[in-house]
Amino acid sequence: MTDYLGIIVIVVVVALVAAGGMFLLFRPGGKTAPPPVVPPQERPLPEQEAKQPAPAGEEGEGATTTLPPPVKPAEPVVVTPEVEVPPPSAGRMVRLRSRLARSQNALGKGLLELLSRDRLDDEVWDEIEESLIGADVGVAPTRVMVEELRTKVKVLGTRTPEQLRALLREQLLAQVGPELDRTLHVKPHGERPAVVLIVGVNGTGKTTTTGKLARALVGDGEKVVLGAADTFRAAAADQLQTWGDRVGAEVVRGPEGGDPASVAFDAVAKGIEQKADVVIVDTAGRLHTKTGLMDELGKVKRVIEKKATVDEVLLVLDATTGQNGMRQAQVFAEVVNVTGIALTKLDGTAKGGIVISVQRELGVPVKLAGLGEGPDDLAPFDPEVFVDAIVGE
Predict the structure, then answer these.
(1) pLDDT by residue (tens digit) across 239-289?
(2) With the C-alpha atoms ordered 355, 357, 362, 364, is the resulting torsion angle positive or negative?
(3) Who wins on pLDDT, 209 or 160?
């Protein structure tokens, strides 16, 4: 009996100890048993990952899944500039008249004030003459104008502001020359395009004028090819390329330092091949004192003439240089027979009389006027608009 009681006591003690352990394990806040340690598996190599058995029931027994090939990086996208449609050249100078008025109106106001004085003695006429010469009208044209004004003022007697303005306008217009042919000859000859040669010294805006002229002609519906024959300045060819790209005109270039005449010849050949209407050749800005460079310019013209007729030789002059541009104009005229003047920065100077003097000295008209820095600020020169900007309303 005693043995049985001892066994029962031992069983009860074991049961109590076990219950206590379970209580400590699962009581609130107690720690959970750590997860079983699983031995690390070896990661399959990339070529093994490409093919792995598919789970049963998905793609059939023993089926394999092929991963997609790696994606190649996208090639860089070349963005071509959008081709612009420029406005036509007709009426541009009328639209830009206000810019002319801002620069030239001081001359007109000064002259009208002098002419309005009660007594027009020799001293006043000397002031009028000085004003005209100071505006780069030139000595000879100034004397002609002053003599005409003196005679007509005497005939008028009493002078109203309207009469004086009309009188001044008449004399200025006569000197500017409304009868001169300012037509830009850019019509093709059968299958051969018209050729325009752009010449001038450095800094006059020659390459920019070439680009603006191309833009104006494209706006008039002409097909244009540009020749970057200024091979001494890489920036000139790049600049012309930008102008051409904007309006869809092809630009023919040569190696830096290459033969300008060869580039000009190739440009004309390209114009014939593409059935272009006009080929515009931009030449190097050469100093008129360097005889060798001037001879080279003559060579460019002669080489072009083996392929086509040179219809226009436009001399680009900076209106702000005044009488200094006259000597340049004379030397260029001796070398390449200038047919017209492109006068740039005419809106930036009060000395618009350069129009009168340069025409008188060269015997060729101003055909184009640069009236700002915008792409469409090159306009066919209109004598009446120019004179009206001087004398005002």
Answers:
(1) 999 999 999 999 999 998 899 999 999 999 999 999 999 999 999 876 656
(2) positive
(3) 209
pLDDT confidence band for 45 (50 / 70 / 90): very low
pLDDT tens column, 339-371:
999 999 998 888 889 999 999 988 999 999 999
Instruction: Report CA-CA distances (Å) from 325 to 213, 321, 328.
Output: 21, 6, 5
CA angle 59-61-67, nearest 5°? Answer: 45
How far does Cα 157 stand from its chain's mean position? 53
**CB neighbour list of residue 292: distance below 8 Å, 6 or more residues apart:** none
- The string of DSSP letters for 112-128 reads HHHHTSS---HHHHHHH
Between CA 193 and CA 190 the distance in angstroms is: 8
The torsion angle over the Cα atoms of residues 328, 330, 331 and 337, rounded to 10 degrees, is 120
CA distance 231 to 283: 8
Please tell me the CATH code under which domain 194-338 is placed.
Answer: 3.40.50.300
Per the structure block, which two tokens stand in for 298? 């003559």
Distance CA 276, CA 194 (A): 9
CA distance 341 to 199: 10
Report residue 368 as tokens.
């184009």
Q: CA 280 to CA 312: how far, in whole Å?
A: 9
Length of the chain, in residues: 393
Give 32-62 as a 3 state SS string.
CCCCCCCCCCCCCCHHHHCCCECCCCCCCCC
Q: Give residue-wise pLDDT tens across range 147-171.
A: 999 999 888 877 888 999 999 999 9
Question: What is the pairing mode between strands 378-380 and 340-344?
Answer: unpaired
Strand order in the sheet with 224-228: 250-252, 224-228, 278-282, 194-199, 310-318, 340-344, 366-370, 378-380
